[in-house]
Design goal:
Strand content: 25-35%
Structural class: alpha/beta
Radius of gyration: 19 Å
Amino acid sequence: MYRLTLTIHPDDEDEVVAELSELDLAGISQYNRDDGQLDLMAWFTSPPVTRLAGTLEFVEDQNWNALHQATWQPLLVGRRWYLAPPDDSSETPPGRTRLSLKPGLAFGNGDHATTQLCLELLEELVQSGDNFLDVGCGSGLLGEAAALLGGRAFGCDLDPRDLPPNAFQGSLAAVRAGSIAVGVMNIQAGVLAELWPALANAVTRDAVLSGYLREQAATVEALICPPWRIAARREKEGWCALAATRLPARLPA
């Protein structure tokens, strides 16, 4: 495997990730730096040809999933959730609902702060019988959580890797207007801005937006305007999420 390490400004993240995604990208991780910059580590099966300035290294093949999962420890998330590795034998604490961290290449396996922020908000929003949609569903962990809360969970993702049950490969264009009670997008800030109008059209009550950094919060929050209002804001490890609620339509005087 080849590892390309880059240091970028958070505002450049969407453009850089989009450029890397056009190459033979096997995976990507990102880390906040104390100086406000962002470190990206992109993994490739062959040396990438790119104009991006960074450090390229060859790394001996290993079972990266197994190595990563070996560091996983059970987590208490929100008031309700207990996230644990798939092979963890610990008892679920009283009053908690167990969710298994998801191995695989797809995003959203549960170990990232943005996924955990979404879980915190969903436990307050999803009601029994709600139609729930996760846009860019990755591993499907958020849909699994919504189902445990009594929702009818669906997901969509353009990436077919590790696509979970009740999810389809495709976009919001396939979702009927007004058919979703609660929708979530845990995606980069630029994609949130691009897809928000379509999600707002599909969702009748509550929406969760996450996947953006503290420095990008003002830009993302500016997307929310009547008939929507911001109902909650959350932050963890420099990453942010918000919940937006659709205001009831006013009756004619």
